[in-house]
């Protein structure tokens, strides 16, 4: 169909027209700038580079001053000025709309206070244009926070919310959404009666007022259970009713925002909205909204995630509502926008985070193939989400019975080859195959740290493998890369790499452990035990604990390079900054102490390096710790050291007695922890075998 | 308020207002990686017979009363391989996720009581179990942990190996020494096949503990 050609001026030409002394020329130029940049980020950027924003901001400032000069003098002039104000405000709003570079340019040009001045203009069109522009600007986090704590600011905000002009009252709500973060700010707004006004906007306002007030209500309630309970109390007749009513609204965006607001309320005060009808309704609406082709559909999956995350009851309801089928269906469509792709993967991750029934469903639908495809997506957010999804599905050691039989066969498509494998133990080799492991290992070197960390998280679960498939991970270079990542500059990467290695060597055969150890080396491992980051120390100690478990020969790893590792453990235990470090370190020593005489004596040397002062023994602190796991690990070490069948047990018992440890143990016969109590009795029994009483 | 149960006394009944933990205690000897070995008596009227059995705990989720692992039966007659490995899943009787009543696997409350009472450590619990399956017992300080282990599949042989895993085990674990006693229940097999396992240290002079964590 033929269409009229639009004769657009070039940006540079338009800029010179903006500087024209002729109001008509200036006005037309402003209109054209605005029209050219609407919804076009490239155009916005090119105009910004040419300096258009300061030019438009200058026109706005001059014209705002002119309003004062010409006030009531000349009607035509005023009309021109007002038109210029409207168009310059609209152009500035367009620059800022959904584009942070535009917001920054508007702020840098000093236009913000002049836009605020427009709100007190006598002409309603000017007021409206100013409010619209400011609402767009307030969508960005680049705008400084509004200070609700200042009385005059609160008065101004209330005046905005009370305005008949929907853009002005909407601006008030946008300011709340933008700037209300702390519980103090939430309280100040609540005390000022803002909720009543927002509620009336919900019930009687326009569509855009409803959107804004739902968003601001959510920001006032977020994580503030005190305010939620006050609101849900007797403050208004049907406190949550007006929001619940909006779940049925004909506009998808209203339904989404009402869901999001109710989710915030529920997550803040879990005792509210327990009605199964409301819960199901939220699930169904959000799953339906996924079908929306626009932004609402993109955001629906994120809202769905926040609804079900960490909540088994809601995950179960969502499973019954076929959530996994629906999310799978959307994934199958392909060519998804990154935001939508990410949201769907994260929603699947939350669905599979706790329940085996959800994981079974995930596997039976063969969603796995689509998720592994996402591991190589161009968007880092999508790659991260795919890793998180895999991490969630692999968070299981349970047999996955799809259908009625454990021997159901699932087709896994790897390139063009389809092969069958039985679904058995989820981590027993099911995921330890090239289709999953190879792309995950490739992400170890991803330029984005968040992708790296997420990939390491997923592989940590995958490598807990009780079959003989661990070699696949070594063959694809995964093990060597984990060791490399253990030296990363990022502590989260180091910690997660060690976590994965710890899981990898759990119950592994000695040949595999030797491979890991020779790659790691005693010096690297001992330096990781002494890493500045406590989480890295903990994982390094847990890795050592697993390395020296199992075959007796594995204890020898501790004595490589003159016992470097053992010394590092001893030093770290002297200065353990948190219980978890003590627990892993003590279990590492406990496992060494389950070896031969030489091993037991080496542990004694770490526990009592000089025997300077019995009060200095960290063992006493550990035995007196509030953490029952730390007490348990410590008592187990003593059990191993004083095992009567070993020749040096008596000598060690004497040392322990001299250090005050036996007497401390005697105080623990009625330890509140059953596990500790029984180990204490074992120690005392062993001690009595040597005539101690 | 719940009263902690001393090992010498009967476990207390939990009052209706109790909100504390009444589940059995965590025990390091029943944690992931731990190994046990012993025998299962499969004697019949015709002959005395016992198979050597090794067990390894692979997974443990106390919050959901869940345990799983492998069971190896050695030198099983009829089997093609010297070791038959099965994967089993356990239900911990924690009064929250599971009670003493099985409610499935063809086990009636009478079958349950008949098996549980075979364990001397169950005696103090019987009265309350008869009332409500043990739902209101406080087992948080009880030195024994009761479980049901159900083999789910053969790991290294096919289903056509001539062996059956149709039944399940009533299991009693002692927190004090890590010993495990069990009775296999399958209406179609010899009754009360006894499983006796001891915690093993795999040639070490002491106890060793490894661990993994899922993220």
From TrEMBL, chain A:
Q: Output the Gene Ontology cellular-component terms.
A: cytoplasm; GID complex; nucleus
Q: What is its main location?
A: cytoplasm
> Which GO biological-process labels does this protein carry?
proteasome-mediated ubiquitin-dependent protein catabolic process
What keyword terms does UniProt attach to this protein? Cytoplasm, Nucleus, Repeat
* Compartments in which it is found: Cytoplasm; Nucleus
Q: What is this protein called?
A: Armadillo repeat-containing protein 8 isoform X1
Q: Which organism is it from?
A: Herrania umbratica
UniProtKB/TrEMBL annotation, chain B:
Q: Which residues form a coiled coil?
A: none
Q: Which GO terms describe its cellular component?
A: GID complex; vacuole
Q: Where is this region: Disordered?
A: 1-23
In the record, biological process GO terms are:
negative regulation of gluconeogenesis; proteasome-mediated ubiquitin-dependent protein catabolic process; protein catabolic process in the vacuole; protein targeting to vacuole
Q: Where is the composition biased (Polar residues)?
A: 9-23
- PANTHER family xrefs: GID COMPLEX SUBUNIT 4 HOMOLOG (PTHR14534:SF3), VACUOLAR IMPORT AND DEGRADATION PROTEIN 24 (PTHR14534)
Please give the family membership noted in the entry: Belongs to the GID4/VID24 family.
Protein name (database record):
Glucose-induced degradation protein 4 homolog isoform X1
């Amino acid at each position: 169909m033929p269409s009229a050609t639009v004769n657009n001026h070039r940006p540079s030409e338009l800029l010179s027209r903006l500087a024209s002394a002729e109001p008509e020329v200036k006005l037309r130029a402003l209109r054209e700038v605005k029209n050219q940049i609407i919804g076009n980020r490239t155009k916005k950027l090119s105009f910004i580079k040419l300096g258009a924003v300061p030019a438009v901001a200058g026109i706005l400032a001059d014209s705002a001053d002119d309003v004062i000069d010409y006030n009531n003098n000349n009607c035509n002039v005023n009309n021109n000025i007002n038109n210029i104000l409207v168009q310059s405000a609209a152009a500035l709003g367009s620059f800022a709309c959904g584009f942070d570079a535009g917001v920054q340019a508007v702020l840098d040009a000093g236009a913000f206070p002049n836009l605020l001045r427009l709100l007190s203009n006598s002409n309603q069109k000017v007021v409206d244009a100013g409010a619209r522009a400011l609402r767009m600007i307030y969508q960005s986090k680049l705008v400084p926070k509004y200070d609700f704590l200042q009385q005059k600011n609160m008065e101004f905000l209330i005046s905005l919310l009370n305005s008949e002009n929907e853009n002005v009252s909407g601006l008030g709500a946008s300011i709340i959404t933008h700037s209300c973060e702390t519980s103090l700010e939430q309280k100040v707004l609540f005390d000022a009666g803002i909720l009543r006004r927002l509620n009336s906007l919900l019930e009687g306002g326009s569509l855009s007022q409803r959107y804004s007030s739902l968003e601001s209500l959510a920001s006032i309630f977020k994580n503030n259970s005190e305010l939620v309970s006050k609101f849900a109390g007797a403050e208004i007749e049907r406190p949550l009713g007006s929001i619940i009513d909006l779940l049925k609204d004909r506009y998808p965006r209203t339904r989404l925002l009402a869901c999001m607001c109710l989710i915030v309320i529920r997550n803040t005060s879990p005792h509210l909205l327990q009605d199964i009808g409301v819960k199901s309704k939220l699930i169904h609406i959000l799953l339906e909204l996924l079908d929306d082709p626009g932004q609402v559909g993109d955001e629906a999956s994120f809202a769905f995630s926040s609804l079900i995350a960490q909540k088994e009851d809601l995950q179960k309801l969502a499973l019954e509502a076929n959530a996994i089928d629906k999310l799978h269906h959307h994934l199958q469509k392909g060519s998804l926008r990154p935001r939508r792709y990410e949201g769907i993967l994260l929603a699947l991750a939350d669905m599979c985070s706790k329940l085996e029934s959800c994981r079974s469903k995930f596997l039976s639908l063969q969603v796995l193939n689509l998720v592994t495809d996402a591991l190589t997506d161009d968007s880092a957010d999508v790659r991260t989400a795919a890793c998180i999804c895999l991490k969630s599905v692999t968070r299981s050691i349970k047999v996955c019975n799809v259908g009625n039989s454990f021997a159901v066969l699932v087709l896994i498509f790897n390139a063009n080859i389809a092969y069958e494998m039985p679904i058995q133990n989820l981590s027993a080799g099911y995921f330890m195959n090239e289709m999953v492991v190879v792309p995950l290992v490739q992400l170890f070197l991803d330029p984005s740290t968040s992708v790296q960390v997420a990939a390491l998280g997923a592989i940590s679960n995958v490598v807990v493998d009780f079959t003989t498939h661990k070699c696949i991970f070594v063959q694809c270079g995964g093990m060597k890369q984990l060791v490399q990542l253990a030296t990363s500059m990022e502590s989260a990467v180091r910690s997660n790499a060690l976590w994965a290695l710890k899981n990898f060597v759990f119950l592994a055969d000695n040949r595999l452990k030797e491979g890991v150890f020779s790659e790691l080396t005693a010096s690297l491992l001992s330096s990781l035990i002494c890493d500045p980051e406590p989480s890295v120390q903990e994982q390094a100690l847990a890795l050592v604990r697993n390395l020296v478990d199992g075959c007796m020969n594995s204890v020898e790893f501790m004595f490589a390079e003159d016992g470097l590792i053992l010394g590092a453990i001893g030093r770290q235990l002297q200065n353990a900054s948190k219980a978890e470090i003590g627990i892993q370190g003590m279990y590492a020593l406990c496992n060494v102490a389950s070896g031969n005489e030489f091993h037991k004596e080496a542990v004694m040397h770490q526990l009592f390096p000089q025997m300077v002062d019995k009060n200095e023994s960290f063992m006493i602190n550990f035995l007196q710790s509030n953490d029952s796991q730390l007490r348990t690990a410590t008592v187990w070490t003593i059990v191993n050291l004083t095992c009567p069948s070993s020749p040096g047990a008596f000598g060690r018992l004497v040392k322990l007695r001299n250090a005050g440890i036996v007497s401390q143990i005697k105080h623990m016969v009625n330890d509140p922890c059953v596990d500790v109590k029984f180990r204490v009795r074992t120690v005392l029994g062993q001690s009595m075998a040597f005539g101690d009483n | 308020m719940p009263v902690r149960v001393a090992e010498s006394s009967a476990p207390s009944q939990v009052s209706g207002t109790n909100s504390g933990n009444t589940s059995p205690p965590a025990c390091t000897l029943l944690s992931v990686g731990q190994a046990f070995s012993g025998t299962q008596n499969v004697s019949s009227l015709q002959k005395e017979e016992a198979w050597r059995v090794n067990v390894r705990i692979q997974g443990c989720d106390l919050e959901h009363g869940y345990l799983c692992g492998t069971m190896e039966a050695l030198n099983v007659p009829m089997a093609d391989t010297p070791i038959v490995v099965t994967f089993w899943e356990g239900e911990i009787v924690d009064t929250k996720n599971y009670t003493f009543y099985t409610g499935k696997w063809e086990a009636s409350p009478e079958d349950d009581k008949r098996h549980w009472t075979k364990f001397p450590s169950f005696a103090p619990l019987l009265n309350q179990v008869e009332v409500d399956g043990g739902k209101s017992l406080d087992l948080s300080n009880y030195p024994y942990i009761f479980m049901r282990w159900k083999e789910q599949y053969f790991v290294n042989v096919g289903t056509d190996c001539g062996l059956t895993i149709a039944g399940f085990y009533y299991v009693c674990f002692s927190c004090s020494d890590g010993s495990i006693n069990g009775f296999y229940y399958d209406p179609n097999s010899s009754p009360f096949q006894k499983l006796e396992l001891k915690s093993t240290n795999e040639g070490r002079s002491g106890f060793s503990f490894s661990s993994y964590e899922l993220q």
